[in-house]
Amino acid sequence: MASLALSSLILLSLLQILRCLSAANISVGSSLSTTSDNSSWLSPSGDFAFGFRHLNNSDLFLLAIWFNNIPEETIVWYADGDNPAPRGSKVVLTTDGLSLKDPRGQTIWSASPSTRVADEAAMLDTGNFVLIGNGSNYVWQSFENPRDTILPTQRLDLGSMVVSKVTEANFSKGRFELHFTNGSLVLNPVAWPTRFNYKPYYNSNTYSVNSSESGHQLVFNESADIYIVKANGEIVQLPSGNELLNPRADYYFRATLDFDGVFTEYARAKNPDDNQGWRPLRVVPENMCLAMFHDIGRGGCGFNSYCSIENRNFSCDCPPGYVFVDPNNRFSDCRPTFRQGCGGDDASRDPEELYEIRELNNVNWPLGDYERLEPYNQTMCEKNCLHDCSCAVAIFDGAGCWKKKLPLSNGRSIATGFSKVLFKVRKGNSPDFAANSGGNKGISPLLGALLLGGSVFFNFLLLVAFCLIVFVLPKRKYGNYNFQDSSNSESNLRFFTYNELNEATDDFKEELGRDVLVNEDEIAMADKCRLQKWLMVAIWCIQEDPSKRPTMKTVLNMLEGYLEVPEPPCLSSFSIAVES
Ligand SMILES: *[C@@H]1O[C@H](CO)[C@@H](O)[C@H](O)[C@H]1NC(C)=O
Ligand SMILES: *[C@@H]1O[C@H](CO)[C@@H](O)[C@H](O)[C@H]1NC(C)=O
Ligand SMILES: *[C@@H]1O[C@H](CO)[C@@H](O)[C@H](O)[C@H]1NC(C)=O
Ligand SMILES: *[C@@H]1O[C@H](CO)[C@@H](O)[C@H](O)[C@H]1NC(C)=O
Ligand SMILES: *[C@@H]1O[C@H](CO)[C@@H](O)[C@H](O)[C@H]1NC(C)=O
Ligand SMILES: *[C@@H]1O[C@H](CO)[C@@H](O)[C@H](O)[C@H]1NC(C)=O
Ligand SMILES: *[C@@H]1O[C@H](CO)[C@@H](O)[C@H](O)[C@H]1NC(C)=O
Ligand SMILES: *[C@@H]1O[C@H](CO)[C@@H](O)[C@H](O)[C@H]1NC(C)=O
Ligand SMILES: *[C@@H]1O[C@H](CO)[C@@H](O)[C@H](O)[C@H]1NC(C)=O
Ligand SMILES: *[C@@H]1O[C@H](CO)[C@@H](O)[C@H](O)[C@H]1NC(C)=O
Q1: Is the pTM of this model over 0.85?
Q2: What is the distance between the alpha carbons of residues 190 and 576, in angstroms, rounded to a whole number?
């Protein structure tokens, strides 16, 4: 009897162990949260994990799939890179699919099989996360919803898209898209934030009017080859790499549309101690600098930047006197560190005293010339550019002089040919934007004298704002509004003022955004900035509710730049007044 009890006990434990061993799959009701210590579901081999990844320098998390057995823990899929999940979020598996809920229980992302029911889920050893339903069919797969990366055994059907990240650490949708839609593999730059597709910089040209001869599937096969299969079974290889890694089983592979726009197949030794990391095996296109060439848009690098390539490694640099708009992102635009143009006092001074020419060799911005002077020599070319307010750069090709304005696009290094790029930069220690922000020191005594009392100041600003509208912004439409014939004049005037101020503020914001790249005359920019700030302060000061109006001290601090000027609220009560 005792032995029977003992054996059933052993049997039970054995069953328990067996269940544990095979319980790699995730059952309905399971969940992961950002707050639990080990928040991931592993594939049977442990190669891949599904779960939350903390984003650097933030309290946000990415629901993701990553290589789990290497120190890099490279992410290969993510639910929604544009809207990472806040701390306290949770992902739950229900029969309706996967749903990601924020701490308040709102669904912020979901994977729902359209008609079928999910019975369980599994993180597979291929890196594919699947929802299983209707017997053992996959009713949803991460492989069918790729982000920036594809993996061996993954196939892209017609209509698929892969989107690059913004930067290495920013998982929002970036500047490049891979489309496999019309029989061909195509890479497009996109205009952020609208995602308008510019002309492709790579096209596999595997489209055919005869559908059986047209591209049908993009295959990343088990032995890490990437190719296009036509409907008739024919295989078309992508431009191939030259490095052979053997044995293949010792390596992990992935192909990523990198944030620089290059579609790259990488390999990494499975041995976590191998310190070579991910090595590129093949790159499409092979020369990004040559491939990216469009009459509109940035080209391979940002505006005012230029592209160079070494060992298939492509990088971007800023010309002399220019720096990256985002110092941490080499693919961002470049901006001049000095004032351009002839604004301010410059008009009365000799441009040759203010500016000098710096030379750059073997680089060209082939598009965007606005003037060609020929025959001309280099001295004349330089002089001409120095004296021309619009000229930012002149290219001297030995016989002629090609003048260009900002922003420059499609810049790239060129191997041969006689051409000198002549950059016009400000002499001496060119003042930078930041260094010059204290330029409005003069206003405080004036303001101080005007600040007599709360209501006086309020009326004064109202008057100033009104004068501004009538005299400074005469181009605006005033509609049918009759200033004289207004019974309820103060409040109507205030409403009118508010609307005008608001519109003017928006216009200025837009204009300022554009000015940064061209680096409009610094003084003009500073004036615009100040004007915009004054407009916003004025809106605050004409709030109907006096308790909302800022105190004198606050106003002073805002005008002096010690305090940020917050977005002013809408004057809602006035909207009613105007509609009636
Ligand atoms: C887990 O899912 C895989 C993939 O569908 C399936 O082959 C396997 O039988 C499942 N395992 C269990 C224990 O249900
Ligand atoms: C989760 O934690 C348990 C113990 O708390 C540990 O045994 C297990 O290996 C952990 N799993 C992962 C994926 O880290
Ligand atoms: C369920 O699976 C069977 C094959 O296993 C398939 O024929 C059928 O279409 C599936 N049903 C749905 C709703 O997908
Ligand atoms: C976070 O920062 C570390 C160290 O700076 C870096 O190695 C890692 O790649 C970063 N993670 C992401 C997701 O960018
Ligand atoms: C990521 O890039 C997008 C687009 O440029 C930007 O709007 C967003 O603020 C960035 N996110 C982070 C965390 O920097
Ligand atoms: C597919 O590509 C071909 C060749 O580039 C083009 O002529 C055709 O119009 C495209 N078809 C569609 C539906 O985009
Ligand atoms: C399409 O191509 C196949 C071969 O791949 C050929 O047999 C067939 O005749 C072609 N059809 C037409 C309409 O040309
Ligand atoms: C992958 O494709 C290559 C051809 O490009 C072929 O030689 C190889 O056998 C394929 N491997 C598998 C596992 O299908
Ligand atoms: C490519 O550039 C990166 C970063 O600049 C560098 O670490 C790497 O060694 C370069 N690779 C080659 C082949 O030049
Ligand atoms: C360039 O041309 C100007 C006017 O044609 C001439 O005076 C000057 O000497 C030339 N300079 C050189 C270096 O040839």
Answers
A1: no
A2: 42
